[in-house]
Amino acid sequence: MKKAIVTGATGFLGFALTKELVMNNVFVFALCRKGSRRISRLDGLDNVKIIEADIGHVCDISDIEEADVFYHLAWESERDNFDEQYMNVDIAVNCLKLAARKGCARFVCTGSQAEYGSTTGLITEETPLNPTCAYGACKVAAYYLTADLAKRLSIEHTWARVFSIYGPNDNPNTLVMTLINDLKTKGEAKLNTDGEHIWNYLNEEDAARALRLLGQCEGTNTAYNVASRESKPLKEYVDALRKIINADSVIRYGTGKSDINLNVSVEKLRRDVGEYEVCNFINACIELL
Q1: Lowest mean pLDDT among 12-16, 38-42, 118-122, 148-152
Q2: Is residue 134 part of a domain?
Q3: What is the share, in percent, of the chain residues with pLDDT greater than 90?
Q4: Where are the alpha helices (DSSP H) in 166-280?
Q5: Distance CA 280, CA 287 (A)
Q6: Domain containing residue 121
Q7: 64: left (phi over 0), alpha (psi -120 to 50) or beta
Q8: Which residues contact 258 (CB under 8 A, 6 or more apart)?
Q9: In whole angstroms, what is the distance from residue 87 CA to residue 56 CA?
């Protein structure tokens, strides 16, 4: 892979992927929304050409060269706003059409754990898709539609179902970032549940590495879970944060049970791309302090 097109390059995972690609000598055409407030994130990155465009009319983009792989990460709007979520399905299909016109051999699109809906037990790629929100439902729709179109266009189609990612560019309102802030400033943190449900955290750099490897690995014409190889009760992650930030702080757990289950298998991903996870949760969180 010498050249790649990336949508969502200024987003959390998209930015991490863009950095990962250029660090591995891949030239990136970064498709960014006009007037994006985060476009400055790309300042200083070598081998990146920023193309400001209306992602809703991606088929009209002309000032972009041919590339080897198209990474589609851009996805916006409120989680339960069906009309706005549905617009993303159309964008994904049009991005695939653009990939075909630009000679891309592979289309890599990020899906979500939300596609599985409420589950119990180990989540594998064979677990039935049963979304319970507009976001998950539209991701599933985009998966099936782009997979079918890719066959017709003779492009390899790789669908990466991303689970819970954390890192320095994370949204400040996520659980990890909120816990870090509360433990540092208040000496205590509160959770709504008892923390016994199974969770999974993958560092943004490891997630980006997995996506890069999927883009350059032949025969990945399928769906993959992109997550950490280790899943464990949320309490264990929370207590690990407490110990490194302020061992005397207090975690106040709720009494309710959560129906969230992130007990996920990544054996298929590791089999096809090799080892992609190198970041340790504790060490990576120390760097966030």
Answers
A1: 38-42
A2: yes
A3: 82
A4: 175-185, 204-216, 234-245, 267-273
A5: 11
A6: 3-164+201-226
A7: beta
A8: 193, 194, 196, 197, 234
A9: 8
Exposure string for 35-49, b = 16+ CB within 10 A, e = fewer: ebeebebbeebeebe
Pairing state of beta strands 106-112 and 27-33? Answer: unpaired
Handedness of CA 58, 76, 8, 278 (dihedral sign): negative
- End-to-end Cα distance, the chain: 35
Among candidate residues 203, 281, 171, the one with its CA nearest the CA of residue 17: 203
Domain count, the chain: 1
Average pLDDT estimate for 157-182: 93
pLDDT, tens digit (0-9, with 9 covering 90-100), for 28-80: 999 998 878 889 999 989 999 999 988 888 877 877 889 999 999 999 888 89
User: Does any domain span residue 270?
Assistant: no
Q: How far apart are CA 184 and CA 186, in angstroms?
A: 6
**pLDDT tens, position by position, 82-120:** 999 999 999 999 999 999 999 999 999 999 999 999 999
Question: Residue 228 and residue 236: Cα distance in Å, rounded?
Answer: 15
E strands within 83-226?
A: 106-112, 156-162, 165-166, 188-190, 198-199, 202-203, 223-226
Per the domain annotation, does 52 fall within a domain?
yes
Cα separation values, 107 from 60, 82, 179, 238, Å = 18, 25, 36, 36
Single-letter residue type at 25: N
What integer pLDDT is reported at residue 169 of this predicted model? 86
Task: Determine, yes or no, domain membership for 21.
Answer: yes
CATH number, domain at 148?
A: 3.40.50.720
Per-residue confidence (pLDDT) for residue 19, from 0 to 100: 97
> φ and ψ at 102, to 5 degrees?
-95, 15
CA distance 20 to 242: 30
**Percentages of the chain per state (helix, strand, coil), in multiples of 5:** 40, 20, 40
